[in-house]
């Protein structure tokens, strides 16, 4: 594996090819999926950047399966990804936060051996106020016998992912992905329209600086969660006090914690027994990334990537980020001491 230093100009396409060469048996199909995701990301970035100008702000009043009013950019991003991915011959099915059911590959197009699950626009409530939003994606290998993808191909535990990543449309547009060989970050150079390697082999600090949680739900948390949050705030178990940073876009909060060290928590609460975030296209892909960077992701009972999904849009509580803070969550919420939790 060629060791790249941040000074060498490496495009994402070249990096994908170099990673593919690590696997002599690789057919190039997975690489093709990553190329297409990068293309879709550039197209969405272009729309997000001009959202304030082209009057595509605000909702278009349609409802998605989550019952949330869809922002126009949600719908547009969803369509961009589907159109970029549905004819490449590498996928046999897709699933999106914005679509109630499995997205089949149109008749007449070749079916491949992978499935793609995605949140086309994460944090969409922030679009109108110019706060960073993102895209999250997850790739699984087809396991069913037929040519076309089936629900069983989508409902696989996170440890079966072959690739995952996210795009953050922030002060710059960055794409971070993993194929199980580390987590790597690429920054879009808009002057040439290329994602360039900027963060090779990302490592999350073992101990966090930041706590990302919406504590307006505090009264709805159970006692163990309340104790955990007091620890994170330096009020118990002599844990250092973390700085609270909560943007309200999972991708933005996660990305800051990945680079700077920290924990993002969306606990279960009395009104949302499984929390708010979706397992298959929010928690699992970010869990793959964070574990590849040396961090951890936990759902309050077990490792997120060990959960066996039963529904496409099922939700999960989520504690994700620096290992020390997530281990503390594991210890306090399940009573199982893991490593140095304190
Ligand atoms: P999405 O826009 O894809 O529906 O995701 C929104 C999610 C996530 O991005 C964020 O962390 C969370 O909603 C914020 O929820 P609260 O407003 O309840 O804190
Ligand atoms: Mn989301
Ligand atoms: Mn979304």
Could you characterize what this model shows?
- This protein is of the alpha+beta class.
- The chain folds into two domains: 12-199, Fructose-1,6-Bisphosphatase, Chain A, domain 1, CATH 3.30.540.10; 210-334, D-Maltodextrin-Binding Protein, domain 2 (3-Layer(aba) Sandwich), CATH 3.40.190.80.
- It is 28% helix and 23% strand.
- It contains eight helices and 15 strands.
- Strands 4-3-5-6-7-8-9-10 form an eight-stranded mixed sheet, sandwiched between helices. A five-stranded mixed sheet has the order 12-11-13-15-14, with helices on both faces. Strands 1-2 form a two-stranded antiparallel sheet.
- Helix 1 runs antiparallel to helix 2 (29-49) and helix 2 packs antiparallel against helix 3.
- The chain starts with 11 loop residues before the first helix and ends in an 8-residue tail after the last helix.
- The structure holds 2,5-anhydro-1,6-di-O-phosphono-D-glucitol and manganese (II) ion (MN) (2 copies).
- 2,5-anhydro-1,6-di-O-phosphono-D-glucitol is lined by residues 97, 119, 122-125, 214, 248-250, 276.
